[in-house]
Amino acid sequence: MNRIVAVLGRGLVPADTPLLRADDLGAVRGDGVFETMHVRAGAPWLLDEHLARMINSADRLDLDLPPVTDMIELARQACSAWPHTEEGALRLVCTRGPEDGGPPTVYATLAPVSPKLKTYRAGGVAVATLPLGVTTHARTPAPWLLGGVKSVSYAMNMACQRWAVRNGYDDALWLSTDGYALEAPTSTLLWQVGGELLTTPTSTGVLAGTTARFVLDRAGDVGLTAGEKLVTPSELLGSQGVWLASSVRGLVEITAIDGAALPTAAKTRSLQDLVSYPV
Ligand code: PLP
Which sequence ranges form a coiled-coil region, renumbered to this chain (predicted)? Predict the structure, then answer.
């Protein structure tokens, strides 16, 4: 299936249609917000949760997001051209628009899930810890650092993933300068200690992951309780399982951290069953 593009107020357009002005602030400043969600059975999964996060991100950037009903309609238009049998990755984008003022630029793209992400569901990922250069609690009292905001400024996130891949890993895991594991550049960290399924508190500035939230809210279904904690990489190595969760990859087991192998996690399959992605 090829990429689908839908534009607010225009509906579906050919995927190669030029959409952004040369001075669009999304392109020249990374000034805008986005959400990516999993499309299954022809519809975006957890759409309400993603839209709520997008509204919050836009508020944090003082950006006027169109009414939520318009965003829902945009998502619906993109999905209308997608086969119900195929999973997909739907991205909703809203930038601040032209530099000299004007309406925000708002569109949706829908594309196949990358084959590499699909292989991670079955085979897991080896991660490299990379320092993020901030202390665990630096971002809470500094809202301008945009902790918890899903802005279109993802160049640093992508640079971390490229560094990891260039050095023989599958992904990166960010560390605070005081030594705690925070999140990955495009996914949330989950881990199991005894009967507890844990994640990093959002007070550290990590993005509030919708997939991890869905899993944590159902931890009881797989015999676990849910909690939040700070964790070091060496504590992760002694845990009963470590995972990355995100909307397009689903739930993926971390098999090694900085080259140190983790024992196979017994709960991977049952946690993956909770989110129902094809494995
Ligand atoms: N953390 C970051 C930095 C992300 O970019 C993402 C998703 O793209 C996540 C966590 C996971 O969030 P979600 O499960 O809502 O996709």
Answer: none
- State if residue 209 touches ligand 1 by the CB under 6 angstroms criterion: yes
CATH 3.30.470.10 given to domain 4-113 = yes
| Predicted complex ipTM | 0.99
Tell me the pLDDT tens digit for each residue of 38-50. Answer: 999 999 999 999 9
Mutate to test the pocket of ligand 1, among 246, 251, 274 (most ligand atoms within 8 A of CB): 246
- Give the 3-state secondary structure of 126-170: EEEEEECCCCCCCCCCCHHHCCCCCECCCHHHHHHHHHHHHCCCC
So what's the architecture of 117-275 in CATH? Alpha-Beta Barrel (3.20)
Task: Report CA(28)–ligand 1 centroid distance (Å).
Answer: 23
The residue whose C-alpha atom lies closest to atom 5 belonging to ligand 1 is: 186
pLDDT at residue 265 tops 90: yes
Tell whether ligand 1 has an atom less than 6 A from the beta carbon of residue 186.
yes
Q: What are the tokens at 243?
A: 């995972």
**Nearest-angstrom CA–CA distance, 229 and 209:** 15
Domain boundaries, the chain: 4-113, 117-275
- 4-7 and 11-13 strand pairing: antiparallel
Question: What is the distance in A from the centroid of ligand 1 to the CA of 206?
Answer: 9
Distance CA(40)–CA(6), nearest Å, equals 18
When pLDDT is averaged across residues 235-264 and rounded to a whole number, the result is: 98
Which amino acid type is present at position 118? K
Say whether pLDDT at 75 is over 90.
Answer: yes
Indicate the pLDDT class of residue 278, thresholds 50, 70 and 90.
confident
User: Predicted confidence band at 279 (pLDDT cuts at 50, 70, 90)?
Assistant: confident
Of 231, 204, 202, 199, nearest in space to 216 by CA: 199
d(CA 132, CA 138): 11
